[in-house]
């Protein structure tokens, strides 16, 4: 009976785990290639629009 409950929980969580694995696998190569450009853009924006210190 306990094994059946564990199996049901596993079957419910399995699609989510597979989805997260596939999404993270696809994102990592893109992060390496596009990482420098947004960081430079953020640095330029922070220099352009600085908030005054109160």
Task: Write a brief caption for the model.
This protein is mostly helical.
Please report the number of helical segments. Answer: 2
Report on the biggest sheet: none
Radius of gyration: 22 Å
Which secondary-structure class do the elements indicate? Answer: mainly alpha
H/E topology pattern: HH
Low-confidence stretches: none
Which of globular, elongated, flat, extended, rod-shaped describes the shape? elongated
**Oligomeric organization of the protein chains:** single chain
**Average predicted local confidence, pLDDT:** 76
| Strand coverage percent | under 5%
> Helix proportion of residues, in percent?
over 70%
Query: End-to-end distance, in Å?
Result: 64 Å
Care to count the β-strands? 0
Structure description:
With 54 residues, this protein is mainly alpha-helical. The chain has a domain at 1-25. Helix content is 85%, strand content 0%. The protein has helices at residues 2-34, 36-48. The termini are far apart.
Question: Any descriptors?
Answer:
about 55 residues, mainly alpha, about 0% strand
